[in-house]
Amino acid sequence: MQLFYHPHLDQSVSQFTFPEEESKHIVRVLRKKAGDTLKVTNGKGFLFESTIVSAEPKKCVAEVTSSEKQHQKMHWFHMVVAPTKTNDRFEWFLEKATEIGVNEITPIFCEHSERKSVKKERLEKVVLSAMKQSLRTYLPKLNDAITFSEFMESDKGGLLFIAHCEDEEKVDLKRRVAPDQDITIMIGPEGDFSHHEIKTAYDKGFLPVSLGHYRLRTETAALVACTTVNLINNG
């Protein structure tokens, strides 16, 4: 099955038009024609079955024939990750985290961050593509990049964890995670969180966790965290 995306679809819509770029992909690349069936999601849990009524490269029109709502999981999983120095490594993380099932992602800039800006539009395309490829009907929420301090002042709930490299006693993440509980995990930059940032996180209720015996790259650590949470909630 191939999944397409249209953010404005809901159960009140009977006929809709794909944007020009998606229309061109459907008609010219995939060679779809009138009468063909497409599966479409709005990224909010709905899966629509539709039939093409007009297959024009600049304006592909389809008619909704049926719809169903897929329920969200019981827990909300929020990854807070410092962007890596190399863009493609962070994009790789976003792709894999989306496939695994993350609900929300916030890029944060820390004291030791080598990268101080990201192109959100590009990252949104990566997340969207991964959602379609993995046949998810919920589009993860990608927040604007903010500083560590700004994130510390934001509203947070559920289980709060921080993974860092300082030498102190930590509990394995798999022993901290509880099924069906909202969870936020922070992963720092290549140079790790500063001592001040770690102390600030503790003061805000974050607990230290271990992701294993070895020192991991930022994107690897973030992916290990995603996999651990997914396994606990689907075990």
TrEMBL record:
<keyword id="KW-0808">Transferase</keyword>
<dbReference type="GO" id="GO:0070475">
    <property type="term" value="P:rRNA base methylation"/>
</dbReference>
<dbReference type="InterPro" id="IPR029026">
    <property type="entry name" value="tRNA_m1G_MTases_N"/>
</dbReference>
<dbReference type="InterPro" id="IPR046887">
    <property type="entry name" value="RsmE_PUA-like"/>
</dbReference>
<feature type="domain" description="Ribosomal RNA small subunit methyltransferase E PUA-like">
    <location>
        <begin position="19"/>
        <end position="64"/>
    </location>
</feature>
<keyword id="KW-0949">S-adenosyl-L-methionine</keyword>
<keyword id="KW-0698">rRNA processing</keyword>
<protein>
    <recommendedName>
        <fullName>Ribosomal RNA small subunit methyltransferase E</fullName>
        <ecNumber>2.1.1.193</ecNumber>
    </recommendedName>
</protein>
<dbReference type="InterPro" id="IPR006700">
    <property type="entry name" value="RsmE"/>
</dbReference>
<dbReference type="GO" id="GO:0005737">
    <property type="term" value="C:cytoplasm"/>
</dbReference>
<dbReference type="InterPro" id="IPR046886">
    <property type="entry name" value="RsmE_MTase_dom"/>
</dbReference>
<dbReference type="InterPro" id="IPR029028">
    <property type="entry name" value="Alpha/beta_knot_MTases"/>
</dbReference>
<dbReference type="InterPro" id="IPR015947">
    <property type="entry name" value="PUA-like_sf"/>
</dbReference>
<keyword id="KW-0489">Methyltransferase</keyword>
<comment type="similarity">
    <text>Belongs to the RNA methyltransferase RsmE family.</text>
</comment>
<dbReference type="Pfam" id="PF04452">
    <property type="entry name" value="Methyltrans_RNA"/>
</dbReference>
<comment type="function">
    <text>Specifically methylates the N3 position of the uracil ring of uridine 1498 (m3U1498) in 16S rRNA. Acts on the fully assembled 30S ribosomal subunit.</text>
</comment>
<keyword id="KW-0963">Cytoplasm</keyword>
<dbReference type="Pfam" id="PF20260">
    <property type="entry name" value="PUA_4"/>
</dbReference>
<feature type="domain" description="Ribosomal RNA small subunit methyltransferase E methyltransferase">
    <location>
        <begin position="76"/>
        <end position="229"/>
    </location>
</feature>
<dbReference type="GO" id="GO:0070042">
    <property type="term" value="F:rRNA (uridine-N3-)-methyltransferase activity"/>
</dbReference>
